[in-house]
Amino acid sequence: MVSRATAAVKSGGTIRALLWYQGESDTVVQADAEAYRTNMEKLIGDIRTDLNSPSLLIIQVALASGEGKFVDTVRSAQLGITLPNVKCVDAKGLDLKRDRLHLTTTSQVRLGSMLADAFLASR
Predict the structure, then answer these.
(1) Contact 92, 62 (CB under 8 A)
(2) How far is CA 47 from CA 2, 50, 70, 95, 101, in A?
(3) What are the C-alpha distances in Å from 97 to residues 56, 71, 89, 109?
(4) Domain range 2-121, CATH architecture
(5) Which ranges carry the Sialate O-acetylesterase domain (predicted)?
(6) Distances from the Cα of 6 to the Cαs of 16, 19, 33, 114, 120, in angstroms?
(7) Cβ contacts of 45 within 8 Å, gap of 6 or more
(8) How many angstroms separate the CA atoms of 10 and 92, rounded?
(9) CA pair distance 119, 31, nearest whole angstrom
(10) For the chain, what are the domain ranges?
(11) Considering only CA atoms, which of 38, 49, 107, 100 is closest in space to residue 73?
């Protein structure tokens, strides 16, 4: 990811934000769920350092669901990150498919609008 982003910048591109939607697998094992915030804050710092962009806007999605019983732990970690220029869009309440894990198409479109709104609001 970082090498492709760096190459894009070298060829004239601009990185204005990073959108992050991940964490479902971290809901399975309690230790992973409890380490989520620390791991995510480190990842954000590492990405900003690697891209030489210390104030890069990060917009993350707080999970709508998860594979395990520690969904609330991961969601709390996601919603609790207070690093500068990190925003969180909450997917809770969006409709899920029958697998109770993935968003429906309509919910994916809604989430896309929510992410766009968060990006535009931070400009």
Answers:
(1) yes
(2) 7, 5, 26, 31, 27
(3) 33, 17, 20, 14
(4) 3-Layer(aba) Sandwich (3.40)
(5) 1-120
(6) 13, 16, 31, 27, 23
(7) 83
(8) 38
(9) 32
(10) 2-121
(11) 38
What is residue 36's DSSP assignment? H
pLDDT at 46 (0 to 100): 97
- Could you give phi then psi for residue 94, rounded to 5 degrees? -70, 145
pLDDT tens, N- to C-terminus, the chain (123 residues): 888 988 888 888 899 999 999 999 999 999 999 999 999 999 999 999 999 999 999 999 999 998 899 999 999 999 999 999 999 999 999 999 999 999 999 999 999 999 999 999 998
